[in-house]
Design a protein that fits this description.
Belongs to the aldehyde dehydrogenase family. Its EC number is 1.2.1.3. The protein is α/β, with parallel strands linked by helices and about 525 residues long. The protein folds into two domains: about 5-270 and about 480-495, 3-Layer(aba) Sandwich (Aldehyde Dehydrogenase, Chain A, domain 1), CATH 3.40.605.10; about 275-465, 3-Layer(aba) Sandwich (Aldehyde Dehydrogenase, Chain A, domain 2). The protein is about 35% helix and about 20% strand. The protein has helices at about 5, 10-15, 60-75, 80-110, 115-135, 170-185, 195-215, 230-235, 250-260, 285-295, 315-330, 350-365, 415-425, 440-445; strands at about 20-25, 25, 30-35, 40, 50-55, 140, 150-155, 160-165, 185-190, 220-225, 240-245, 265-270, 275-280, 305-310, 365-370, 390, 410-415, 430, 430-435, 455-460, 470, 475, 485, 495-500. The strands form six sheets. A seven-stranded mixed sheet has the order 3-2-10-9-8-11-12, sandwiched between helices. A seven-stranded mixed sheet has the order 15-16-17-14-13-19-20, with helices on both faces. Helix 10 (about 285-295) links the parallel strand 13 and strand 14. Helix 4 packs antiparallel against helix 7 (about 195-215). Bound molecules: 2-aminohexanedioic acid. 2-aminohexanedioic acid (UN1) binds near residues 168, 246 and 303.
Length: about 525
Amino acid sequence: MSKKVKDFGIEKTLKNLGIKDENKGTSTGGKYFASGKTIESYSPVDGNLIAKVKTSGESDYDKVLETAQNAFKEFRLIPAPKRGEIVRQLGQKLRQYKNDLGKLVSYEMGKSLQEGLGEVQEMIDICDFAVGVSRQLHGYTMHSERPGHRMYEQYHPLGIVGIITAFNFPVAVWSWNTALAWICGNVTIWKPSEKTPLCAVACQNIMNEVLKENNLPEGISSVLVADHEIGQKLVDDKRVALISFTGSTRVGRMVSANVAQRFGKSILELGGNNAIIISQDADINMSIIGAVFGAVGTAGQRCTSTRRLIIHESVYDEVKNRLVKAYGQLKIGNPLDESNHVGPLIDTDAVNMYQEAIKKGKKEGAKFIVEGEVLKGKGYESGCYVKPCIAEVKNSYEIVQHETFAPILYLIKYKTLEEAIAIQNDVPQGLSSAIMTQNLREAELFLSHAGSDCGIANVNIGTSGAEIGGAFGGEKETGGGRESGSDVWKYYMRRQTNTINYTASLPLAQGIKFDL
Ligand code: UN1
């Protein structure tokens, strides 16, 4: 461990979270399994090996599934508000571990410490939210068309919920799914990204404390640190009622087809290609902050990252010049050092993709006004640090139509708002979108049926940083799923319609006569 990282107290953080040099990556909350290969987690911050994790093998998989199945039989009988109490306790533990977990997120994934802490805050928020929802799993009561009949609907748990998450939000996305899945009476099996296994081990250690303190059966919350083959088994497994998948559109397309093939349910949270429209009536100061944070926050690796700025021709040069100036002031370096704005990309594969995208963009005609570069030298030894860059492009370029998980920002000029909205919508993805304007007519048009086609549409806010209280997700190639707030809990339950006849006769619906 380098001296620099010692200064940030990583060793203590790992200890507090129960991370050892070698960890067993699969746990049902009681037993640990580790018959698979060993993976090593290197930090993109300094390139150092943080710890090793033994993954689960084929034989572990069935044991985990069986344990989860058994746990479900018990867990579904616990009243929903009591299940909420368990989620409340998880939220309390997360408050206790917030600093450590936030720091581990920052060190293993590379996002800034502030964003790492923000991610843990999202976990705490969703726990609080889910506790409230645990007393509000409401269904409707309808009036029957038949006399002496009562009709209503109720929601029942699904069973096992499989959660497959990406490296960029290595803890929050698990909690969005798990907190809701549990209050709904489901048990969960989490397959985290192989790029951030220690974050998953830490969450599981925290969860295990809650399970133990409440004498709950093992199998309510399992984690499977495993390769994509085991992930595929989970996707194909009939015992898994719902797969919540967060990741690329390419993989999501396969997951969606495979789960549909067996009539399972899925929640898909796939790629975004998010734009901010900056109108002639925008507050330019606010627009610059929103755009820069959206583009370079998490080094451009959020699915909500701002990839495109669609700027009115009358303010185009001003916005462009101020962006160039702002990018000149960005400090790139160790994300645990709070004076830095931008940390590393997740690994050198991501760096290669960043370079490829720049090359491709240039070939298509992109004019770079802030050049990209892979940073070398002191503090950049991991090889994962890149310079955020800006290019003037046409929306039709193939590279602009594609989501590159890196801090590359594209500028596009527009004349009329209708044209800007058409450009904003003219990509295969439909996650997040925003308009910066102080003009009510523009704002409302953007939010109308003729406006943004995305799952998230903001006014005077950037594209990233959604609160957990709203339903999170997007349309088109983003997959159509919704996670976290609002009435998303309904995805985690099956709806049942009940009709009860409390008379001594049996009238048929639709007035059908059938006498014996
Ligand atoms: C993601 O990038 O996968 O809205 C999730 C945001 C965060 C979540 C992003 N609350 O940027």
